[in-house]
Amino acid sequence: MTGWLTRHPTALTEEDRAGLKDVLARCPELDTADGHVRDFAEILTDRLGSTLPTWIDAVDASRPPGLTGFALHLLRDLDAVTAGLTLDWSSGSIEGAVNRIKKIKRQLYGRAGFGLLRKMILLQ
């Protein structure tokens, strides 16, 4: 059943689409949450960060459980979140390098000094 909610509606079979429609019709709260989640997914995929305050206001007005806290926490650093959902800049390569260094450090923890750690990082 959870696969219905995580897949794009066009990726569902006709039977699954009917089942999802039936479940959402029986639970208005779930239907509201489904709409908000799909709207947020559109904001993420289409880089529509400028529409984020409107989405947060809509979630705050309908108060779906689980999403309200998430939406209100986005307000803590709205400028950064909006920039992240709008700009093409990515820190993915840096995060990958940091993750690789941390992995090497964990592997050598307690077994080697800084010199060996430095060599392992430079060689890999």
Automatic annotation (TrEMBL):
It holds the Pfam family DDE_Tnp_ISL3. Signal peptide: none annotated. Residues 5-119 form the Transposase IS204/IS1001/IS1096/IS1165 DDE domain. It comes from the Bacteria. This is Transposase. It comes from Streptomyces roseicoloratus.
